[in-house]
Specification:
alpha/beta; Rossmann fold; six-stranded mixed sheet; three-stranded antiparallel sheet; 3 helices; 9 strands; 22% helix; binds inosinic acid; binds magnesium ion
Amino acid sequence: MAERCTEIFCSESDLQEMIRRLGEQITRDYADQEIYVIGILKGSFVFMADLVRAIDRPMKIDFMSVSSYGDATVSSGEINIRKDTDGDIKGKHVLIVEDIIDTGITMQSLIRILMEREPLDIRVCAAFDKPSRRVVEVNIDYIGKQIPDAFIVGYGLDYAERYRNLPHVSVLEIYGGDQ
Ligand code: IMP
Ligand code: MG
């Protein structure tokens, strides 16, 4: 198997515009509230760094790292917490920041786990959303950009841990054979 980046799906200026819009929306919606922002590693790290600087509200910043149990292609619907938050979210306005929502299974499980910790509320902000791939219902409050069923990389998103450093988002074509 090999892969190559094909067309640019989001340029750096598209991403800047997306961040500006999300930052304004979130700033407006959290008037007079401190936000407890949780970035989901590793995919959200670039998006998170841009997003928090576009939000004009007091906030605390934390990170979690989660992975699906078992076979990656057939999700069991359970997630494994690799790194938990450092702080307690009880009584907080939690904003989860994720790179992309695909089947929705990761986010659904994560919300279920975090709700048990009694936050005041939980909202979700995802840079990208693939609604056509959804297998479970999950409410995404802030979406940067909806995408068709393609595999994208860059701006934090990876393919086998590569391409996270691309400053734009590209569609990745994966092919077999010796090309
Ligand atoms: P879900 O549980 O199926 O919604 O999986 C979401 C996770 O799958 C994301 O956090 C990404 O790590 C990964 N993922 C899904 N689609 C893509 C993609 O197009 N590019 C890179 N990673 C993806
Ligand atoms: Mg990934």
